[in-house]
UniProtKB/TrEMBL annotation:
GO MF, one example: pyrophosphatase activity
InterPro entries hit by this protein: ATPase_NBD, GppA/Ppx_hydrolase, Ppx_GppA_N
UniProt-annotated stretches for the region Disordered: 1-179
Biased composition (Basic and acidic residues): 148-179
Domain Ppx/GppA phosphatase N-terminal: 205-500
Stated name of the protein: Exopolyphosphatase
Pfam families: Ppx-GppA
Species, as recorded: Rhizobium tubonense
Compositionally skewed regions (Basic residues) per UniProt: 15-28, 61-72, 108-121
Length: 523
């Protein structure tokens, strides 16, 4: 009958709802009173005897339960229609449909967990940021060893750095392909003791940024004073260092380069033959410069250390085989090139290598040290130069500037540096008493003590006192209350001159150069 039939259907629905609520509370399987795990007294079969097609509603409940476990609790309050599970024929070895659904649900859950960190608040993937480019501040100085005038006896490959008024700073170069090409200049100095290379780019007027640098002690002039020739071992060391320089030059597009050789090749009988070997084995064509050019280049390299208050300067460069001295007088019309103000210059045919070989550099007594000084003084007596104004007075008008490994070593020992640091040495002023104290300290040390000092090292331990003897002779000729230390030299002078000749720093100025006065050199 309709009423009874309708009531019966409503009653069954209420029972189904209460059964589902009880199941959610228990968290287990549905317990139908008509179906139990064991056969009841009425003979109803247990669950094990029920086939899937006989209990489609129960299978559907189990399927929903598995979905809830994989997807989490549902937030949709709308009632879900009950889907009756249909019996599907499954091939042997294939997973059942409910197993496939469960595996797919697990995979979807793992996918969401995997990509959860890449989604924003709205569920959209975040835009991937570009990797940051690290650029050091331009005024910051790195801790990398410098290739400029490095006198510690170790090979140096410098990182890109900048000469800001010839004070060095670290600079990081970008690898951007779209960056416009820059003009690079190269300067190589093959001296009696060292082989040095600088590659630089001009920046602001009078300044340049070092792109690459190299320095190695080769002792090309070893034994030159006794034999008058370059030894095979010394030439081999120099060629090997020049090969490194050649590879650095070939790796870059150089606009202009100047490669020079100084006293060792200048005075050796086989100097020209050695340079021919260099061309053949490395491809580098070095020119032997004269002593006047060497003196002018030393002045050009140190021009930024001469303050605007200076009116007279004595600048000296103590090399391995020769020592150059330039006397500079600056008038009111100061030229941009300090070398144009040189009035007198000389080149002494003695350096740290030749002097130490003649007198011995390992075991130097005060008597031997004084004999070295006297030899250099006799050479200076031949230098016809009038007294320099202000050299004996405590005045800022006079500058005594030294550029060599000797003066930088004295400064490093005076500052008690744990390792040589050009940034702390270049440009420092030392009083007359401080220079005297440092020379006395070095003279009191034996060879092992000098070699153990981090600012000297074993490669210079037998040369430093010979350099101090040359320095002492210069100080006696031009007494000064203080001396300025320059860790720079011919390479910086070469770069400065080449850039100035090309007019890279001029801004609408006339290219007509300053005409230097006639120089009075050695007789």
């Amino acid at each position: 009958m309709p009423q009874s039939g309708g009531a019966s259907v409503a009653e069954e629905r209420r029972k189904g709802k209460s059964s589902r609520r009880a199941k959610r509370k228990r968290g287990g399987n549905a317990r139908d009173p008509a179906i139990s795990a064991e056969p009841n007294q009425a003979g109803n079969p247990g669950l094990a005897a029920i086939r899937p097609e006989d209990n489609s509603a129960g299978s559907s409940a189990r399927k929903r339960k598995r979905r809830r476990r994989s997807h989490g609790p549902s937030h949709d309050n709308a009632p879900k229609p009950i889907q009756l599970m249909q019996t599907v024929a499954v091939a042997p070895g294939q997973p059942a449909p409910e197993d496939r659904d469960h595996a797919q649900a697990g995979k979807s859950s793992k996918h969401r967990r995997k990509h959860r960190g890449k989604r924003g608040l709205q569920g959209r993937p975040l835009v991937q940021e570009k990797p940051p480019q690290l650029v050091a501040p331009e005024g910051r100085q790195g801790d990398q060893p410098n290739g400029h005038g490095d006198h510690r006896g170790q090979e140096r490959h410098a990182t890109p750095q900048r000469h800001d008024g010839f004070h060095q700073h670290q600079h990081n170069h970008s690898d951007n392909e779209s960056q416009r090409p820059v003009d690079l200049y190269a300067a190589l100095d093959l001296g009696t003791n060292n082989c040095r290379l600088l590659i630089a780019q001009p920046t602001r007027p009078g300044q340049f940024r070092v792109v690459d640098a190299f320095s190695r002690i080769v002792r090309l002039g070893e034994g030159l004073g006794a034999s008058g020739r370059l030894s095979n071992e010394a030439m081999d060391r120099a060629v090997e260092a020049l090969r490194v320089c050649a590879s650095k030059l070939k790796a870059r597009e150089i606009r202009r380069a100047r490669l020079i050789a100084t006293e060792a090749c200048r005075s050796a009988e086989n100097g020209e033959a050695f340079l021919a070997r260099v061309i053949e084995e490395t491809g580098l064509d070095l020119e032997i410069i004269d002593r006047e050019t060497e003196a002018r280049l030393a002045v050009s390299g140190c021009s930024s250390l001469v303050g605007p208050e200076a009116r007279s300067v004595v600048l000296f460069d103590i090399g391995g085989g020769s020592s150059e001295i330039a006397v500079i007088r600056i008038e009111d019309n100061r030229s941009s090139r300090l070398a144009n103000h040189i009035t007198h210059w000389t080149s002494l045919p003695v350096g740290v290598v030749t002097l130490s070989e003649r007198h011995g550099g390992r075991d130097v007594t005060p008597t031997v040290f004084e004999a070295m000084i006297n030899e250099v003084e006799r050479m200076l007596d031949k230098f016809d130069c009038p007294p320099v104004a202000g050299a004996t007075a405590d005045s800022a008008d006079f500058h005594l500037i030294g550029t060599s490994g000797t003066v930088t070593t004295l400064a490093g020992v005076h500052l008690d540096l744990p390792r040589y640091d050009r940034r702390k040495v270049d440009g420092v002023w030392l009083s007359d008493d401080e220079v005297t104290a440092m020379q006395s300290k070095l003279l009191s040390w034996d060879f092992a003590g000098r070699a153990a000092n981090p600012c000297i090292g074993p490669d210079r331990a037998d040369l430093v006192l010979a350099g101090c003897a040359i320095l002492e002779a210069i100080r006696r000729r031009w007494p000064s209350p203080r001396m300025r230390v320059a860790d720079r030299g011919l390479r910086e002078g070469l770069l400065t001159d080449m850039m100035a000749d090309d007019g890279v720093w001029r801004r609408g100025r006339s290219r007509r150069g300053y005409r230097p006065r006639d120089l009075k050199g050695p007789n």
